């Protein structure tokens, strides 16, 4: 019962705060400003990306967790963009094959339970020549930190709604038949070392 209270009433507010860390906001700006047209954002969270969609007209905001989406509603109302909330999981996208120009994922792939299934779905709905834009925290390149990430992931999953500290997202995307048009790694300031390494990338269907 205490855990349920934490998940419903405390975690969404913690998430909303942490996801506004200034170095993460800088990454959002760089990732999202170039995007124009129609976008599917998976794991929309509390809507922190909205101000950075400067040339987007329609946004499908896919967010399965109603308690988290609740904190996005004010931002959605204040936005000039047409935002359509889609209450579904990335593992089963309610979109047609080859129908989406741009898909955005910011710190969402860490939390999806069946990641291979979700990446297959992203691959299915993305248009040929369309782009998946992402920034995600990933497995460290330092063995000592990797060990710690593996050790702490079960705890992190309980505390942070399914978040894995130890995913090799680059490899997962290659395995799902994406190829990169842009890719670099960075250590984000103001984030604990255990989740500091970020993959910033744009990818297309192979
Ligand atoms: C760490 S939060 C990031 C939120 C937001 N993308 C941001 O940048 O602030 C992870 C988000 O992924 C969502 N999520 C978890 N499992 C998911 C799934 N299977 N499909 C889609 N979204 C999922 C969570 O509800 C949460 O909103």
From TrEMBL:
One of its GO terms (biological process) is methylation. Keywords: Methyltransferase, Transferase. GO terms for molecular function: S-adenosylmethionine-dependent methyltransferase activity. Pfam families: Methyltransf_11. The keyword Zinc does not apply. Residues 40-132 form the Methyltransferase type domain. It comes from the Bacteria. InterPro entries: Methyltransf_11 (IPR013216), SAM-dependent_MTases_sf (IPR029063), Thiol_S-MT (IPR052356). This is Methyltransferase domain-containing protein.
